[in-house]
Amino acid sequence: MTGTCQLCGRYGPVELHHLIGGACRRKADRDGLVIFLCPGCHRLDPWAAHRSGETMRELRALGQRIWMERTGKGVRAFVKEYGKNYLGGEP
């Protein structure tokens, strides 16, 4: 697929990345918590989502903020749905 990387803004090949993965991947699909990343930002470069813990934490927090904005619900509701608060602090 071709498009614009939602992390670096590069235009070219892009890959689907789930903002919340693992056991919650299907919920993330259902809730539209996916973005498109170039191969470098997704899996190849040192800062890539699948290589950098910091990038992964930032993207999970982004997914939580998007979910909360779309649903109008707060941190506690997100934790109930996804099992974890990615924004830090207590729910």
Molecular structure report:
This protein has 91 residues and is α+β, with helices and mostly antiparallel strands. The chain has four helices and four strands. A hairpin with a 6-residue loop joins strand 1 and strand 2 (11-13).
Find the count of extended strands (DSSP E, 2+ residues): 4
What is the 3D form?
A: globular
Total count of helical runs of at least 4 residues: 4
Rg is 13 Å
The major pleated sheet works out as:
2 strands, antiparallel
List the helices and strands and how they pair.
Elements: E1 2-4, E2 11-13, E3 15-18, H1 25-30, E4 34-37, H2 39-44, H3 53-71, H4 75-82
Antiparallel strand pairs: 1-2, 3-4
Name some characteristics of this structure:
two-stranded antiparallel sheet; 91 residues; alpha+beta; two-stranded antiparallel ribbon
Précis, in short:
Helix content is 43%, strand content 15%. With 91 residues, the protein is α+β, with helices and mostly antiparallel strands.
